[in-house]
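Shipment paperwork, digital attachment
Item: protein structure file
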Amino acid sequence: MRFTLAAATALLGAGSVSAMNWTVKVGANNGLLFDPPQIMPAAGDLIMFQFQGKNHSVTQSTFAAPCTHMTTPSQGIDSGFMNVAAGATELPEWTISVNSTDPLWFFCAQTSPVVHCSKGMVFAVNPTAAKTFTMFQAAANATGGNSTTPTNSSTPSPSGASASTPSTTKSGAIRIGGSAAAVLSAAALFVGLL
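Attachment content:
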């Protein structure tokens, strides 16, 4: 059994060398924005969304419908709303694992007191020259306040990302739903406890 755990730990270490962790601030400085608004991660990278103010979500959409929770070809992932009280010392975090380099599109589904998406609160992963972040944000601004709210948080999506369970701790431990990385992470954590 030790050989299996050691092998799993070695594989985890080998896979994490090339993987990168990206931090995206959601609602930084009480603004209606993602900071940065777009990133270019590789398959295997992790994106940690840190909710910094008010009450926002990270909800997957499509390029064609920027302010609508994606339902086809599959249900898009969604953090659910993360409320951050003024003066909070611990900030909620939500992490996704990037499964491919295909473009992914996200928005904040908050509609009160204004529709955040139509105010430009959108985020892009791996936008292309044909479908840029600027085009996506312009389409969101043009929705005029039409947005749909999410119904199910942390639903895995086969369209390029899988989600973790929201957390308010600042530990490095995450849960990546439905992936080999979760098994390897659990094995590495187990070995660390020995």
